[in-house]
Amino acid sequence: MAAQIIDGIAFANQTKQDVAARAAALKAAGKPVHLTAILVGGDHGAELYAERQGDGCRALGIDYTLLKFPVSISQRELKNEIRRLNKDVGVTGIMMHLPLPDHLDTARLQYEIDVVKDVEGVNPANIGYVVYKHTLIAPCTALAAVELVKSTGVQLRGAEVVVVGASVIVGKPVALLLIEQEATVTLCHIATRDLMAHTRRADVVVVAVGKAGLITGDHLKEGAVVVDVGINRITLPDGTRKTVGDVDFESAKEKASWLTPVPGGVGPVTVAMLLRNSVRSAELLK
Amino acid sequence: MAAQIIDGIAFANQTKQDVAARAAALKAAGKPVHLTAILVGGDHGAELYAERQGDGCRALGIDYTLLKFPVSISQRELKNEIRRLNKDVGVTGIMMHLPLPDHLDTARLQYEIDVVKDVEGVNPANIGYVVYKHTLIAPCTALAAVELVKSTGVQLRGAEVVVVGASVIVGKPVALLLIEQEATVTLCHIATRDLMAHTRRADVVVVAVGKAGLITGDHLKEGAVVVDVGINRITLPDGTRKTVGDVDFESAKEKASWLTPVPGGVGPVTVAMLLRNSVRSAELLK
């Protein structure tokens, strides 16, 4: 059996259409979506990335402001900037490009972002609301992985789900979001004794480790739904470079029923989820 | 093999001694621990319970104030009371007796409690901080269950842990706290297809469902560590009433290496964890 490929690009495009319609409705109601991004001491690459993000927003009718701060900005100054944005009724969403310089405490600054304006879902309170089954804004990558699982139509209630990788941004929120769907979830990680024993019994496997080829067809149950969050740059024997996921695509597609490609799977949907969260924030504020 | 019994009362007493010493040190430094509890429209039983809690605090050198509000108090009024307590430098801890009357939004009010003064660890941000491996104040019952697991000396890194029950207050935070210890954690619940398959492979089982006799010796691997959070009142054939856990004690103790009794297991430790959290809040504020 050859797996059906989960088309992240198509899913993202569909989401963007929906986002554009909702953004237009908000604008018509006099409440335009306005995302403000914070960039501290970014290099040229980071600035370029942020500018492109701005283009992506504007294309869907989302206003975008990039606030650039010098690398010397203090914790207090940046905190006050965030508090000012929290109060600014013209700003509906706030995001902070990472990494921040070492002298800044990322977690404390994320905690300062208003829970509703927190379009990346990184404020600990937003993670807590996911635990409370009261999700306001969930982290974008986790949300993307879960949306792609759902897009296959797999029955999640009672399903055996194995999440590989226990990161704060992906693994743990994915686990929590799938528990919310009443799946039985096992969270595996570097210290797991027998990873294969877990993945082999799973109806759904989500992998977010950052290790090329970690999960092969041998790790999978026949018919599993597999979502690959990993993005790894590898060098092939002939010296060319290639982007691959954590799942060995060729062997996995012989066992899985559904499988995301890398690139073209979770990546584009993550971008779309930031846009969707941005509209959601504005709707919640309305 | 007969399990060793995990003595919750002894653990609680030891914790209380530690709490008393830390509370005395804070008092000597001019920063006494002062827990303020909120009770809305409580009946006589609830008041009695709260007063007893106050006695327990004072016995360890923790000041305790019980604020009673009429059942008619509005969301805004109670929110303002919490905000006032947040700002009051003489108040080091805040807790809210539940349930609140139906017209009040419990989750939103818990979110108002200052994260450091939140001695019950119920503010979503505190749950989020647990996910972030940055725990400030964890929920008391979950903390009690995890402390009792740790008290057995079981190696948690890489251990197979099964948590039965996915409640917000116990199951999910227990799972998160044990992931923080690098255990491989599976969270089972009412929709789990084959509970026994999971519990039988577990080195550690934590049960928090509220169903007497749910887990028997048959569910356990030889030598498992078993912590029973359930508290159920049952009626025996002869009409007498008895308090039991979710684990069938007699059969489980033939398989487990360590087992908590009910009563005398997690219950007293939960009370002790509230006291320990109260001292921790005051120390964090210092």
TrEMBL record, chains A, B:
Keywords on record: Amino-acid biosynthesis, Histidine biosynthesis, Hydrolase, Methionine biosynthesis, Multifunctional enzyme, NADP, One-carbon metabolism, Oxidoreductase, Purine biosynthesis
Highest taxon of the lineage: Bacteria
InterPro entries attached to this UniProt entry: Aminoacid_DH-like_N_sf (IPR046346), NAD(P)-bd_dom_sf (IPR036291), THF_DH/CycHdrlase (IPR000672), THF_DH/CycHdrlase_cat_dom (IPR020630), THF_DH/CycHdrlase_NAD-bd_dom (IPR020631)
A molecular function (GO) term: methylenetetrahydrofolate dehydrogenase (NADP+) activity
An example Gene Ontology CC term for this record: cytosol
Presence of the UniProt keyword Electron transport in the record: no
Entry-linked Pfam families: THF_DHG_CYH, THF_DHG_CYH_C
Gene Ontology biological process terms from the UniProt entry: L-histidine biosynthetic process; methionine biosynthetic process; purine nucleotide biosynthetic process; tetrahydrofolate interconversion
UniProt key word Oxidoreductase: yes
Binding residue positions for NADP(+): 165-167, 190, 231
SUPFAM superfamilies noted in UniProt: Aminoacid dehydrogenase-like, N-terminal domain (SSF53223), NAD(P)-binding Rossmann-fold domains (SSF51735)
Residue span, Tetrahydrofolate dehydrogenase/cyclohydrolase NAD(P)-binding domain: 139-283
Subunit structure: Homodimer.
Family: Belongs to the tetrahydrofolate dehydrogenase/cyclohydrolase family.
Job of this protein: Catalyzes the oxidation of 5,10-methylenetetrahydrofolate to 5,10-methenyltetrahydrofolate and then the hydrolysis of 5,10-methenyltetrahydrofolate to 10-formyltetrahydrofolate.
Protein name: Bifunctional protein FolD
Naturally occurring in which organism (per UniProt): Humisphaera borealis
Gene (UniProt): folD
